[in-house]
Amino acid sequence: CSSDLVPLERNGQTLRLLQRKFHVSIPFAYSSAGYGFLFNMPGYGSVSVGSHGVGGMSWHAQAAALLDFWVTTVPAQALHKQSAEPIYERYADATGHAPEMREDALLFWQSRLRYMTSSVALDVASKYQALGLPVGVLVVDYYNMVQDGDFRPDPKCYPSLKDLTGGVRKAINASVVFSIWPEAKQNSTEFEALKAAGCLLNPDLGGFAMNPTTESCRKLIWEQYVKPRYFEQGVSAYWLDETDGEGTGGGDGDFGYNTSYGPASVASNLWVNDWLRTFTEPVAESGVAPLVLARGVWAGGQRHGVVLWSSDIESTFEELTAQVPQGIHASLSGIPWWTSDVGGFGCGREQPNDSPYMQELMVRWYQFGTFCPVFRTHGLRKGQKEPRPSPDPCNHGTSSGAGNEVWSYGAETQKMLEKYVILRKTLKPYLRALAKNVSARGVPTMRPLWWEFPHDQAAVEINDQYLLGPHLLVAPVTT
Predict the structure, then answer these.
(1) Helices 356-370 and 317-332 meet at what angle, rounded to 10?
(2) What residues form DSSP beta bridges with 259?
(3) 221 CB contacts (<8 Å, ≥6 apart)?
(4) Distance (Å) of CA 172 to CA 107, 111, 125, 163, 166
């Protein structure tokens, strides 16, 4: 877990270009000199940004088999405005425009580690229905399969996805999202078929990583597994966790994904967008707006309907503080839809749900989340758990944490959390208009202050405030 605060000004920084956990590297830079630059190289490398008064950038590629540069500038007639908007519009034209965000996804997302059965998830939906709260998405986290690579939630625990998705839709008119990890364990149901088809690559977390970098493998995974077992059962949005190479190469070290385009040093970062498109292109072809939640993405990934989240983060105020510039960084990298685990994932720093620290942290994070592009709570909590049998047939490697719903932190805290879930719904017309503008013009959702005030030099140094679209100035309380 990480709580590093990365300032918006990149001067004097050196960054690696390899995707790793907590390091989403998108090689696009906007310069205050009035240009945008894409270092279109998907392998290992780095960039160093010149210090104040020096400027410039030095880009390095370990292997240059796949490499080109793309540069755009502000039109001459707009130079006096010092506006970045034309650059981002051209960047989206070159790398792809984000599809419009689904209506459900503009509302509050409810998630935790984890809803171990359909009955638990339906019970949560029923309680939100009784409260009359506007929930748009209910998320079922990992270990819903017996083994990664089964490509099917355990039927003992989730006997009918159609009944689950239909029940949630009837109760609170929300979508259901299921987590699917990109590896197959050697004793999983589909391991041998995937291996025989050449659709497994790097050793990964006790199994092998999927190979989505060939059309035949993408087609097999969708048509044989995902479409009949998820999509046709009412699950059309997916949580694609572990998209940052964690576990590849025998551990979470300095190794990416081998691909059909070449070894990891040459093409690792192409892997992630191909994994996303496995799930999004068929959905889009069916006439449904694609939607995937992922913690890794590369340049152009916005065209696949990705919501980038900031990975497993600590449940601390220091982490909350760090999230503000992280979300702005994502938007300025061309990925407009971003979220954090509201309340933090935990990472061993979580305090009991009934502690004053956790109660205040939840309220402050809900306030921030309300004004984020995507408002989604998630985490491993300490507190009262649902009773489960022992041994638990739905454990699959990890049990559920305590509740992470609005009622999980005491009655007084619940009143405050409910207020922000409701407020999010009142923002929906504004967010819908913003989503249309983002899709049409490639502009960011979370904008640094200099975006709207380019002539104010002091705005460049502000890391703890931002604009959500053109009209909402957001200054979260994070301490």
Answers:
(1) 20
(2) 262
(3) 151, 199, 210, 212, 278
(4) 12, 15, 6, 14, 10
Residues 6+ apart with CB under 8 A from 60: 45, 46, 47, 48
Beta-carbon contacts of 214 under 8 Å, excluding residues fewer than 6 positions away, are 198, 199, 260
Q: For the chain of 479 residues, list the mean pLDDT of each consecutive stretch of 10.
A: 78 89 90 93 95 91 93 77 90 97 98 97 98 98 97 98 98 98 95 97 86 97 98 98 78 78 93 97 97 96 97 95 96 97 93 97 98 98 93 94 98 98 98 98 97 91 96 97
- Whole-angstrom distance, CA of residue 220 vs CA of residue 49: 43
CA 176 to chain CA centroid, nearest Å: 16
Provide the token pair at 454.
């380019």
- The single residue listed with the structure tokens 């001067």 is 11
Contacts of 405 by beta carbon, 8 Å cutoff, 6+ apart: 110, 112, 124, 127, 128
Concatenated DSSP letters of 266-277? HHTTHHHHHHHH
Interatomic CA distance for residues 352 and 260, integer angstroms: 47
Q: Of 97, 91, 92, give the one whose Cα is nearest residue 284.
A: 97
**How far apart (Å, rounded) are the C-alpha atoms in residues 234 and 166?**
8
pTM greater than 0.90 = yes
How many angstroms from the chain centroid is the CA of residue 47? 24
Distance CA 31, CA 36 (A): 6
